[in-house]
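--- STAGE predict ---
source: upstream dedup step, 1 unique chain passed
mode: sequence only
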Amino acid sequence: MKIIYLIGLTLVIIGSGCKGEKKEDTDIKKTTSVDKSSVKKLEISLASKSESNAAGNIIFIEEEGLVSMEASLTGLSEGEHAIHIHEKADCSSIDGKSTGGHWNPTMKPHGKWGAKEGYHKGDIGNFKVNEAGNGNLTFATNEWCIGCDDKKKNIIGKAIIVHQGVDDFTTQPTGAAGGRVSCGAIIQ
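--- STAGE serialize ---
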């Protein structure tokens, strides 16, 4: 009888030990679900260039491998304007040309974002501006990163350029988008 009692007691102790382990496993899963410290945020300002009044702010947010860009622009002429990422975070020249050409680390032809024929990593596209001179743009891609080690994805050290005209998506290598009217360095 004592042997049966000891075996039963041992089974109860082992069973309750397993239950405790399962609870701990559940608690671990709850604490590792989302790591908010992995979210990166970068805000930049755009300054007028080429004797324009164009300016604005851009917020980049990277989360779970996706970089989103929200641009708010002012002082532009009504209609469509092109916006691109350029090679260098140097907005020192009055015409914005100190930023170099479009950012193109994959050496593809200029084109519309996602085109099977190819496109630059900086070929964001066009956005509309209302009669008051204000425009907004939201864009997201997994082909960029903020400060990672991949030179073909890292946007740090580049610049945002807003152009006076529309990107035609065919003229090489610029899209014939016209003068550079606003510039912002993408730096941390």
